[in-house]
Amino acid sequence: MMRFKPIAAVVLLARFLKAVVLSGIQTVQVILRASFGQRTPPPAAFLRVHFAPMSPMGASLLGCMITLTPGTTTLDIDMENRIILMHVLDASDTDAIVQGIRDDFESGLVPLFGVRA
Q1: What is the sign, positive or negative, of the torsion defined by CA atoms of 99, 101, 102, 103?
Q2: How many domains does the chain have?
Q3: GO CC terms on record (predicted)?
Q4: Is residue 100 part of a domain?
């Protein structure tokens, strides 16, 4: 059984809250720009994101964190292949989206819920 790591949990929470605020601002900008015809809306897309080995609880929490972040929604979690299917409102830079998920969420979840591959 893994030990609870309170510092890792607090760091993860801080990263998550920061991501929610920044993504909320970006999502509002996308909506307002499209509403007032300042530019064409960015492309939306479905992405498949591979995630690090972690317990089902960790993968579920990762999916919840993605869904709770404005502009993104988790559609499916494939534990066998470690892939999350998600929808993003602004897919103009998918590499940055995937890297943000890894940096902000996955890197904080692995110390708490990671398993050996």
Answers
A1: positive
A2: 1
A3: plasma membrane
A4: yes
Could you read off the pLDDT of 47-61 as tens digits, one per residue? 999 999 999 999 999
Structure-derived torsion over alpha carbons of residues 111, 12, 9, 3, reported in degrees to the nearest 10: -10
Residue 93 has which token pair?
């830079």
Predicted TM-score (pTM) of this structure: 0.90
Residue 1 in domain: no
Domain assignment of residue 58, yes or no? yes
Separation between Cα atoms, residue 29 and residue 40, nearest integer Å: 12
Q: pLDDT tens for residues 20-46?
A: 999 999 999 988 888 887 778 889 999
Which residue segment(s) compose the domain that 83 sits in? 6-113
